[in-house]
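Thread: "does anyone have the structure for this chain?"

Original post by V.I.:
We have the sequence but no experimental structure in hand. Need at least a predicted one for the grant figures.
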Amino acid sequence: MVVCGGVYQKSGLVVWLTIEGD
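Reply from O.Q.:
Generated one for you, tokens below.
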């Protein structure tokens, strides 16, 4: 999934990212 400069939940973990390729 692509998220730019946001917080998202994946596999029970909250991750800050700029780009996430999933």
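V.I.: this helps a lot. Strands lie at 6-10, 13-17.
O.Q.: and The two ends are 4 Å apart (CA to CA).
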